């Protein structure tokens, strides 16, 4: 699948790297607020951003959002999220359709009976007309109830009926595949279709996507829906997505965290990037290696430097990403004592080994395996940042030639 806007082309499937997606939680009609959040999500590493298109006001806002993003140099493709009235909004507001890079369609929410078939056909016809890829997004909270009831009845007539959970999972898979197949029958290229079938249970999600991977040729979008908040949401999302990605299943992912009060929406992007990067599938930002600390370490000192270094690298990445290609592969070590500190620092691109309890109050710095200097005193953090900046400019700036 090719998703594009201006000079930004995002490839899904076909051996392309896993793509990170996110979704705004602003009212789309709030143009400035939505633009601001999209920028934050893109800066965090989101390569696609989905926005709700649920009202005429939202549809009218989409072209304005696109214009403001382009003017600011943010060419991240936008995905329109449609439920219930998407066929009407896309028909009534053609500039909205043109400004979006992809349509997300939930087959459980496009109408009942004959209206379901006609509304779905309208959405596919519009996607073809405007040359937009689509995602068929099935969710167990909005599954086609007629399909589920039919499959439950068929199961109940069997001599040895299966449990209802298995039938629900099969219904999700069938709804996603049948809808994608119908889109192909209506003229949609199968290469321009991604499908998803989301639930909020880890084991159920793994089972569903293993089935999808065996049964269909379409790109797969992964996500544990309604994952929750904080540690619970982080652990559940990481467990589910890591199992599937490590099996080679999934072309694009979204982490659906409930933000904690005051937490930035981009936290879901941070976690998605960390999952993909920790599996060695692709890098999004430099990796900071730091030890957990023990009785040998001056805990507060090295913890503060590790935190400050990690925050600094994340802050710099929106600027570095385009200017210094390859910088995302850099490793930085911040270690806390003489036991593993020098060794880990030598293995990193740039590393510092802070003094532990009873050690001399100096911190040797290693660059590409060689000791280059030692830092100490109150300026150590700022001096280390300067060394990182110089390394980035020297090591990765040449890639611009």
From TrEMBL:
Any one GO molecular function term: iron ion binding
Transcription regulation as UniProt keyword: no
Co-factor(s): [4Fe-4S] cluster
Entry's cofactor comment: Binds 1 [4Fe-4S] cluster.
Pathway note: Isoprenoid biosynthesis; isopentenyl diphosphate biosynthesis via DXP pathway; isopentenyl diphosphate from 1-deoxy-D-xylulose 5-phosphate: step 5/6
Binding site for [4Fe-4S] cluster: 291, 294, 337, 344
UniProt-listed InterPro entries: Dihydropteroate_synth-like_sf, IspG_bac, IspG_bac-typ, IspG_C, IspG_TIM, NO2/SO3_Rdtase_4Fe4S_sf
EC number of the protein: 1.17.7.3
Catalysed reactions, semicolon-separated: (2E)-4-hydroxy-3-methylbut-2-enyl diphosphate + oxidized [flavodoxin] + H2O + 2 H(+) = 2-C-methyl-D-erythritol 2,4-cyclic diphosphate + reduced [flavodoxin]
Residues of the IspG C-terminal domain: 287-389
Top-level division of the source organism's lineage: Bacteria
GO biological process: isopentenyl diphosphate biosynthetic process, methylerythritol 4-phosphate pathway; terpenoid biosynthetic process
Gene3D superfamilies: Dihydropteroate synthase-like (3.20.20.20), Sulfite Reductase Hemoprotein, domain 1 (3.30.413.10)
A Pfam family matched in the record: GcpE
IspG TIM-barrel domain segment(s): 10-269
Keywords from the named record: 4Fe-4S, Iron, Iron-sulfur, Isoprene biosynthesis, Metal-binding, Oxidoreductase
Chain's role: Converts 2C-methyl-D-erythritol 2,4-cyclodiphosphate (ME-2,4cPP) into 1-hydroxy-2-methyl-2-(E)-butenyl 4-diphosphate.
Family recorded in the similarity comment: Belongs to the IspG family.
Listed name of the protein: 4-hydroxy-3-methylbut-2-en-1-yl diphosphate synthase (flavodoxin)
The organism of origin for this protein: Turicimonas muris
Upper taxonomic lineage: Bacteria, Pseudomonadati, Pseudomonadota, Betaproteobacteria, Burkholderiales
């Amino acid at each position: 699948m090719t998703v594009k806007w201006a000079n930004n082309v995002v490839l899904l499937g076909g051996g392309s790297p896993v793509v990170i997606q996110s979704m705004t939680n602003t009212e789309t009609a709030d143009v400035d607020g939505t633009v601001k959040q999209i920028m934050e999500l893109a800066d965090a590493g989101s390569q696609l951003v989905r926005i709700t298109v649920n009202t005429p006001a939202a549809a009218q806002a989409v072209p304005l959002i696109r214009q403001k993003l382009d003017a600011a140099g943010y060419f991240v493709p936008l995905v329109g999220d449609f439920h219930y009235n998407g066929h009407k909004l896309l028909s009534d507001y053609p500039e909205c359709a043109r400004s979006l890079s992809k349509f997300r369609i939930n087959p459980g929410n496009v109408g009942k009976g004959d209206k379901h078939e006609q509304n779905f056909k309208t959405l596919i016809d519009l996607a073809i007309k405007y040359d937009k890829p689509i995602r068929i997004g099935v969710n167990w909270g909005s599954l086609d109830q007629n399909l589920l009831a039919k499959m439950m009845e068929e199961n109940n007539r069997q001599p040895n009926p299966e449990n209802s959970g298995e039938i629900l999972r099969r219904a999700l898979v069938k709804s996603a595949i049948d809808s994608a197949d119908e889109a192909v029958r209506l003229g949609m290229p199968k290469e321009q279709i991604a499908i998803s079938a989301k639930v909020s249970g880890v084991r159920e999600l793994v089972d569903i996507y293993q089935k999808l991977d065996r049964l269909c040729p379409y790109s797969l979008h992964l996500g544990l829906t309604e994952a929750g908040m904080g540690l619970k949401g982080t652990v559940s999302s990481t467990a589910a997505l890591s199992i599937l990605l490590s099996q080679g299943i999934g072309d694009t992912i979204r982490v659906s965290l409930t933000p904690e009060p005051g937490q930035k929406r981009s936290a879901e992007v941070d976690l998605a990037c960390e999952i993909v990067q920790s599996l060695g599938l692709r890098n999004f930002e430099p990796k900071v290696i730091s030890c957990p600390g023990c009785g040998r370490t001056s805990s507060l000192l090295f913890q503060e430097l590790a935190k400050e270094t990690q925050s600094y690298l994340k802050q710099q990445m929106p600027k570095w990403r385009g200017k210094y290609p390859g910088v995302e592969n850099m490793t930085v070590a911040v270690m806390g004592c003489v036991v593993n500190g020098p060794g880990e620092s030598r293995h990193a691109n740039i590393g510092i080994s802070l003094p532990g309890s009873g050690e001399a109050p100096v911190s040797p710095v290693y660059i590409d395996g060689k000791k280059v200097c030692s830092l100490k005193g109150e300026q150590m953090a700022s001096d280390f940042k300067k060394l990182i900046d110089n390394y980035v400019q020297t090591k990765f700036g040449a890639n611009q030639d």
